[in-house]
Amino acid sequence: MHSLEKLFGPESIAILGASNRKGSVGFSLMSNLVASGYRGVVYPVNPKRKSVLGIRCYKSLAEVPEQVDLAIVATPSFIVPKVVEECVNAGAKSLIVVSSGFGEIGEEGRKLELELGRIIRGTGTRLLGPNCLGYIRTDKRINASFAIRNALPGKMALISQSGALCSGILDWAQKQNVGFKYFISVGSMLDINFADLIEFIGEDKEVESIAIYMESIKDSEEFMKAAKKFSLKSPIIVAKSGRFEESAKAAVSHTGSMAGNDEVFEAAFEKAGIVRVENVQELLGSAQALAKQPLPKGNRLAVITNAGGPGVMATDAVIRNKCRLARLSKKAMERLEKEMPSHWSRSNPIDLLGDAGPELYEKALNVVLGEKGVDGVVVILSPQAISKPVEVARAVAEKAKKPGKTVLACWLGEGFVEQGREVLRKNCVPCYRTPEEAVRVFSYMESYRKNLEILRGERDLEVLGTQKRPVKAKRVLNTYLKKGLKVVSEIDSKKVLESYGIPVNRTVAAKGLREAVEKAREIGFPVVLKVLSPDITHKTEVGGVALNLISEKEVASAFRRIVSKAKRKKPKANILGVSVQKMVARGKAELILGKKEDRIFGPVVVFGAGGIAAEVFGDKSIGLPPITKKQARRIVHKTKISKLFSGRKARVKADLGELEGIISSFSRLALDFPEVEEIDINPLILSNGKFFAVDARIVLKG
Amino acid sequence: MHSLEKLFGPESIAILGASNRKGSVGFSLMSNLVASGYRGVVYPVNPKRKSVLGIRCYKSLAEVPEQVDLAIVATPSFIVPKVVEECVNAGAKSLIVVSSGFGEIGEEGRKLELELGRIIRGTGTRLLGPNCLGYIRTDKRINASFAIRNALPGKMALISQSGALCSGILDWAQKQNVGFKYFISVGSMLDINFADLIEFIGEDKEVESIAIYMESIKDSEEFMKAAKKFSLKSPIIVAKSGRFEESAKAAVSHTGSMAGNDEVFEAAFEKAGIVRVENVQELLGSAQALAKQPLPKGNRLAVITNAGGPGVMATDAVIRNKCRLARLSKKAMERLEKEMPSHWSRSNPIDLLGDAGPELYEKALNVVLGEKGVDGVVVILSPQAISKPVEVARAVAEKAKKPGKTVLACWLGEGFVEQGREVLRKNCVPCYRTPEEAVRVFSYMESYRKNLEILRGERDLEVLGTQKRPVKAKRVLNTYLKKGLKVVSEIDSKKVLESYGIPVNRTVAAKGLREAVEKAREIGFPVVLKVLSPDITHKTEVGGVALNLISEKEVASAFRRIVSKAKRKKPKANILGVSVQKMVARGKAELILGKKEDRIFGPVVVFGAGGIAAEVFGDKSIGLPPITKKQARRIVHKTKISKLFSGRKARVKADLGELEGIISSFSRLALDFPEVEEIDINPLILSNGKFFAVDARIVLKG
After folding, report:
1. Which of A500, B213, B227, B608 could disulfide-link to B272, CB 3.0 to 4.6 Å?
2. CATH architecture of B506-583
């Protein structure tokens, strides 16, 4: 039996803090539960009352004649630990703490929360909350919440981290006739977290989708595991707020400072197959579409409309959301030409003109649904004097039953079209208020399909994971770890990269002037000299770098110059000589590849444009390791700089397979050594079609 | 009397094509007009009927006993020209043609439209349409449209280019209790266009705002003039679709190809003071706020909420829309600390917690409205069991009456909060469904304020406009015009720029090798040599450029090399020698400044990042000339590259005043010579804090 079974399917429920006072939480909990038609036994518990809502009230849980499956605690926070301890002792199998006044209010509350944690630890009793609204489960008629409305029955699960938002969502959902099987407010997630719930709901085959309002997560590893498993079966849709969290700025290194917290979430969602939407409205709208309509097989959308304006709006939305307007085949065009009114638009969007009735919509849908080049259709009705919103809705719903393609609708307006919307919704064709919304939802469906494709390729990851750590990398890093040194030198950092098959330009150490000249001759001119010292991290700042040296003479004078400059600027530094390396022509594309440590998700890989572009344009893309070559391709293509060397309009030649391999190998390195705090390849240069790590730095955890 | 007076205030209206057949346009027009309570005389005209809706019907307009102020034509398109001619002959003072089947259907329709144009030209009769829905004017109780609903009375004017959208908008507006004084469907704008309507409505002092749904415009000059004049008084809000028009790609030159049509619209709107919103929903929502609430004085927003989640969403929206969360003063914090519940959020957003009642909202508003550092407030209510949506609404509406600061609201949910929303709306506090919407509307209000600031500085433009064209520029360009040459050489292009005070690096011509060496010595090393030929535009492609020449020897050998290469690659080219110029170090910021010709707005100025960034990141900003220094600053700051040399985090020194001056002078040049097709300064380099046009090309119209 799943550990949440008793929580969500209790045969008896006690409410601690039950009350007859209207407006109080204890009253709402009692009346919601009784009104919902719950078929188990309810025990109000309150030492001050004899009965609540006419039901006999108990002084304490110990007095209740049976061990309850679920105890709901609604007492003031300061006595919650005591009450919960009593519940555990009385054998309550699961708990909901709705009371607020814990971690969210600061130090004092945090202490209470810790205490609560200690009490339930090891008891096997699961706890939802604190600071939550409770939950609603419609199929068992349990409304164990103090929400202002009950949920309509349905097949969706909703999990919200904001209790205050739950009532608003229920209010919206009712208006739009959206039902739920589970409606859960998670609160502070002291014990039960998103992962537990996703796992539990995953065992319920009736649930078609999970919609989540999220602000942050606890235990990213469990979350990712549970989400991946569920996503492979049914969609998870997340609206996460807190995009611009200032706290993400705290990261140290250059690459690090770019890896905004929210962008890591975005990468994690994608990897776990989760569809991220913008806001709570879209949460419900997308969940409906993902549950009711078949997934598109691509991003080519046909638009059928009875008005030009909304067709233009839909087109704008198609391009903005990175989908494409489907091209109609010659055959389809010929058929439409025959069947459409003489002044129809003659292209996609297919404008049936203002007087279009159900038959015309049917004919157009017939043609479009038979097209190989069409992955989905958005059908728009803009009310005109002669429009028949309900009849057209019926016709569209009928046609949409033919399996295979995604059909979404948009009936513009309010009262005049509401009934038509209703007909569509009841027939599993989600209907939206604006063309933009409908197209956006289509794009979310398409992104779920893409996520699934990647997710199903995860077997490649297992192969990646079984590879051994290169001996050379281990040896190099161990030397630093043993000595307690944090910053790995450029030469050694490059050795580590090389051992992972990442191409570097040849770089060697030279203690003295003569050795430097010799090494330069060996490597071949032009070369670069950099001062070599464990105490100097920013070499350019002390004048410790000389580029493009083309002769032995230049090498010699550069050696003297940079060593003496470095000594002058950093008199206490231990200068070991210089590093000599092959000069790589600056190339057209200057990139960066880095690893940083995210507070929530651990190691992340950052790829993007280097140089000025890194700072000014912030053109980067994030992935969670391990990264397969296929995932690497997606990461690369998300950056704008990739247009330079990839795709039809590429102006610079590049071995993209090599780049994908570099990123994939780098992701292994990012995972292989938990002792590493960050890695910076800056720049990674594209020169003559090949990629080279020209400067690199590994920093170990302190 | 304004030429549209009779159209919008007719004492008699004839409807040509009036009908008793339900569902027909002729029937809708008649019944709408009669049902609206029109107080003038209605004359149905239809040769086939004796009466329509019980009103005596006439065989032709000539039969009607008086000269009507307005004739509405609803006959099939092919007889419209004949009917309109009859109307003009019968002395109808104005016309609405609702019939479709003109320009929008192709060649055949275009011919009909041209004919229609010929018929009314010079008659003084004004025509609305064709292919429109007509108009509604609520104060005079005229519904001269075939829309499915009448408009509620109000003080807004709405103009829609999509007739099909009108009914949808009316349906939405009714649901939200939004009223209109004028509701106009413009159709194809054969005669009456946006400019006419804005001008006419501008004379009506009761109108608080104009909302426009636009797809394109005719006569940009008139439009800009009318819009500017109106904007100075009251806001114009536009939702324009067609953002990604493929046709904009047709532009020739590099700079040109970037100036997407829609971006020019954006620049034009800004210059005319127009607020651009994303979609039709926002159109109504923003128009309400702009009409009912005082404009903010800046972008600092305070958020008051009874729930954390929506507060986070609001914060996300604040940052995304480039506003700021207001910082509360010490005094305000102290007062809140005293008056708020003990666990309030202690920062902005001010979270009053779930059980907040009207008094708490009032107290928080009191504090925030008294703050100098707050420009506007968004008040959020998320329904909880104990919330009082109506009472809180009353309290907020009362406080919002205090003049000075913008107050907007967001009541989340549907049925539970609807009454509260109603209370707010009736009291001039616009109330939205989501925090994002409310914040976004605030940001639109703020952008209107900024637009006004610029618009009021237009006097500077008049000064700009009175300056004479430099003699040198005239002389240079005339030479080319006389010879019929299209491409002005780099040297001459730079002369033109120089005459407008735009700094260039010194560039001179040299016919032979010896002259080249001499000129190089004069200019000072290092220099650049480029092949000089009217037949070679892309010099790099023929190997015609040599950079960084540091000695006479290098200049001599470069001369031989590039001239012989050019001869080999372009044997037929007339090679005049080379241009010699000072080599400017590549610098940190490589920019472009260009002028191109927009199909709709004429000359536009494009500024942005150059080099790879121009193509990859598309980082540019567009302005309509003439451009004042103040406007230039806004244009510069819209590009990302400007962060490099401007603002607190600038890494490169720059004389920003100089850059603004360059753009302003360049905008004069862009206007001074209508014969110029395009100008490209590419690159404009920032070197040692100063800007230089390092390469330039002027192309004349062919």
Report:
1. B227
2. 2-Layer Sandwich (3.30)
pLDDT bracket for residue A462 (50, 70, 90): low
Window 355-384 of A: residues touching B by CB (8 A cutoff) are 382-384
CA dist list (Å): B246 to A213, A316, A545, B145, B238:
38, 11, 49, 34, 21
Cα A59 from chain centroid (whole Å): 47
pLDDT tens-digit readout, A526-576: 999 999 998 888 888 888 999 889 899 999 999 999 999 999 999 999 999
- Which range, of A101-105, A165-169, A194-198, B272-276, averages the lowest pLDDT? A101-105
Residue A147, chain B, CB below 8 Å: the answer is: yes
| Mean pLDDT score, A202-212 | 96
Domain B460-503+585-702 has CATH 3.30.300.30: no
Nearest-CA distance B285 → chain A (Å): 15
Quote the DSSP letter at residue B417.
T
Task: Please give the sequence-ordered ranges of beta strands (E in DSSP) within A272-371, or none if there are none.
Answer: 275-277, 300-305, 324-325, 350-351
CATH dotted code for B5-256: 3.40.50.720
Of A171, A316, A643, the CB nearest to B243: A316
**Taking residues B427-442, what's their average pLDDT?**
95
Helices (H), A23-65: 25-35
CATH placement of domain A294-456: 3.40.50.261
- Check if A295 contacts B (Cβ < 8 Å): no
* DSSP annotation of B58: B
In this prediction the ipTM stands at 0.89
Structure tokens at B701: 């119209």
Q: Which two tokens stand for residue B574?
A: 């007339």
What tokens were used for B576?
Answer: 């005049």
Distances (CA, A) of B18 to B11, B22, B29, B72, B557: 18, 11, 7, 9, 86
- What are the sequence ranges of the domains in chain A? 1-131, 147-292, 294-456, 458-503+586-702, 506-583
What is residue B199's predicted lDDT score, i.e. its pLDDT?
Answer: 97
Distance CA B669, CA B671 (A): 5
CATH of domain A458-503+586-702: 3.30.470.20
Give the nearest partner residue to A416 out of B148, B162, B242, using CB atoms: B148
Count residue pairs from A and B with Cβ separation < 8 A.
214
A214-218, A335-339, A447-451, range with the lowest pLDDT:
A214-218
If you count them, how many residues does chain A have? Answer: 702
**In 10 A of CB A62, how many CB atoms?**
12
What is the pLDDT confidence band of residue A464, given thresholds at 50, 70 and 90?
A: low
Query: For the stretch B666-676, what's the b/e string if a residue is b when 16 or more beta carbons lie within 10 angstroms of its beta carbon?
Result: bbbbbbbbeeb
3-state secondary structure at position B157: strand
Share of residues in chain B with pLDDT > 90 (%)? 75
Cis peptide, bond prior to residue A47, ω within 30 of zero: no
- Looking at the domain covering A1-131, what would its CATH class be? alpha beta
Please say if the pLDDT value at position B368 is more than 50: yes
Same-fold call for B5-256 versus B293-456: yes
- Burial of residue B337, with CB atoms counted within 10 A of its CB: 0-12 exposed, 13-18 middle, 19 or more buried: exposed
Predicted TM-score (pTM) of the model is 0.91
Q: DSSP string of A131-147?
A: S--EEEETTTTEEEE--
Judged by CB atoms closer than 8 Å, whether chains meet at B148 and A384 is answered as yes
Q: Which of A164, A312, A619 sits opposite B241 (nearest CB)?
A: A312
Task: Render pLDDT for A223-261 as a digit per residue (tens, 0 to 9).
Answer: 999 999 999 999 999 998 877 653 233 222 223 333 347
Q: Does domain B293-456 have CATH number 3.40.50.720?
A: no
Q: Do A172 and B414 touch (CB under 8 A)?
A: yes
CA dist., res. A563 & res. A618, Å (int): 35
